[in-house]
Amino acid sequence: TRAFDSEKVKVVFVLGGPGAGKGTQCKRLVEDFGFCHLSAGDLLRAEQNRPGSEYGQLIRDCIKEGSLVPVEVTITLLKNAMSDALKENREGSGESWKDGKGLFLVDGFPREMDQAERFEKQLRPLATVLCTPSIVLYFTTTEEVMLFRLLERGKTSGREDDNEESIKKRFRTYKEQTMPVIEHYGKVGKVAEIDSSASVEEVHKRASEGLKKVLS
Ligand code: B4P
């Protein structure tokens, strides 16, 4: 049996600068609440490594350059992942959903206004209420902290974008393309800003409280 009504599914966007801790916090929130976590970065990396993908090289180049992967590619991957998760719910397998309510944590998306607009239009057929976020969780810290964390991760991650040159470009992309998205949702009162300079545990506490408030 399905766990929830697909028409009542909710979406929370998770944004913040590179290395602000989006992925780290999403993992913790999934452990606690059982949300369905979809990371744009993870979806792109999986597609990049999929044998035979026509986008592999394009994705690799964009990630290394710290630029955004073309919107068509990102939207298609996200739409497929959401559609698969909703299908799981309809069929009653529901591995991606443990919260019983149907909440998508969409991490690292939308990273530019065009993505936000297309999300509304192109995902409408999946579920009508899904198309606007209930809230945007916005993790903030300084560039020094983000740079330090990413360089630390770079020592073992093998990620081609965890080096100083790529990180500087990612900061620029974030300021020019993603900040307008945060301002856009801020104007309609949908942004919950969380200082992510503290420890993973402390930030997690703040994020959980912020989420509970809006979702209760
Ligand atoms: P992402 O994969 O989204 O990665 P990110 O912004 O670097 O990381 P995140 O904020 O999740 O950091 P994390 O928790 O891992 O994007 C990578 C690239 O993919 C983009 O540059 C772009 O090219 C492409 N892309 C992604 N989304 C796209 C989209 N929508 N459209 C087009 N292109 C897109 O934390 C980083 C490190 O800090 C970890 O090592 C972690 O352990 C550590 N850390 C986290 N929180 C900490 C804390 N509180 N204290 C100490 N350390 C902490």
UniProtKB/TrEMBL annotation:
<comment type="subunit">
    <text>Monomer.</text>
</comment>
<keyword id="KW-0067">ATP-binding</keyword>
<feature type="binding site">
    <location>
        <position position="115"/>
    </location>
    <ligand>
        <name>a ribonucleoside 5'-phosphate</name>
    </ligand>
</feature>
<dbReference type="GO" id="GO:0006221">
    <property type="term" value="P:pyrimidine nucleotide biosynthetic process"/>
</dbReference>
<keyword id="KW-0963">Cytoplasm</keyword>
<dbReference type="GO" id="GO:0016776">
    <property type="term" value="F:phosphotransferase activity, phosphate group as acceptor"/>
</dbReference>
<keyword id="KW-0808">Transferase</keyword>
<dbReference type="GO" id="GO:0009123">
    <property type="term" value="P:nucleoside monophosphate metabolic process"/>
</dbReference>
<feature type="region of interest" description="NMPbind">
    <location>
        <begin position="39"/>
        <end position="69"/>
    </location>
</feature>
<keyword id="KW-0665">Pyrimidine biosynthesis</keyword>
<feature type="binding site">
    <location>
        <position position="45"/>
    </location>
    <ligand>
        <name>a ribonucleoside 5'-phosphate</name>
    </ligand>
</feature>
<feature type="binding site">
    <location>
        <position position="170"/>
    </location>
    <ligand>
        <name>a ribonucleoside 5'-phosphate</name>
    </ligand>
</feature>
<keyword id="KW-0812">Transmembrane</keyword>
<comment type="function">
    <text>Catalyzes the phosphorylation of pyrimidine nucleoside monophosphates at the expense of ATP. Plays an important role in de novo pyrimidine nucleotide biosynthesis. Has preference for UMP and dUMP as phosphate acceptors, but can also use CMP, dCMP and AMP.</text>
</comment>
<protein>
    <recommendedName>
        <fullName>Uridylate kinase</fullName>
        <ecNumber>2.7.4.14</ecNumber>
    </recommendedName>
</protein>
<dbReference type="GO" id="GO:0005634">
    <property type="term" value="C:nucleus"/>
</dbReference>
<dbReference type="GO" id="GO:0005737">
    <property type="term" value="C:cytoplasm"/>
</dbReference>
<feature type="binding site">
    <location>
        <position position="198"/>
    </location>
    <ligand>
        <name>ATP</name>
    </ligand>
</feature>
<feature type="region of interest" description="LID">
    <location>
        <begin position="152"/>
        <end position="162"/>
    </location>
</feature>
<feature type="binding site">
    <location>
        <position position="153"/>
    </location>
    <ligand>
        <name>ATP</name>
    </ligand>
</feature>
<keyword id="KW-0547">Nucleotide-binding</keyword>
<feature type="binding site">
    <location>
        <begin position="19"/>
        <end position="24"/>
    </location>
    <ligand>
        <name>ATP</name>
    </ligand>
</feature>
<dbReference type="GO" id="GO:0005524">
    <property type="term" value="F:ATP binding"/>
</dbReference>
<keyword id="KW-0539">Nucleus</keyword>
<keyword id="KW-0472">Membrane</keyword>
<comment type="similarity">
    <text>Belongs to the adenylate kinase family. UMP-CMP kinase subfamily.</text>
</comment>
<feature type="binding site">
    <location>
        <begin position="108"/>
        <end position="111"/>
    </location>
    <ligand>
        <name>a ribonucleoside 5'-phosphate</name>
    </ligand>
</feature>
<feature type="binding site">
    <location>
        <begin position="67"/>
        <end position="69"/>
    </location>
    <ligand>
        <name>a ribonucleoside 5'-phosphate</name>
    </ligand>
</feature>
<keyword id="KW-0418">Kinase</keyword>
<feature type="binding site">
    <location>
        <position position="159"/>
    </location>
    <ligand>
        <name>a ribonucleoside 5'-phosphate</name>
    </ligand>
</feature>
<dbReference type="GO" id="GO:0006207">
    <property type="term" value="P:'de novo' pyrimidine nucleobase biosynthetic process"/>
</dbReference>
<dbReference type="GO" id="GO:0019205">
    <property type="term" value="F:nucleobase-containing compound kinase activity"/>
</dbReference>
<keyword id="KW-1133">Transmembrane helix</keyword>
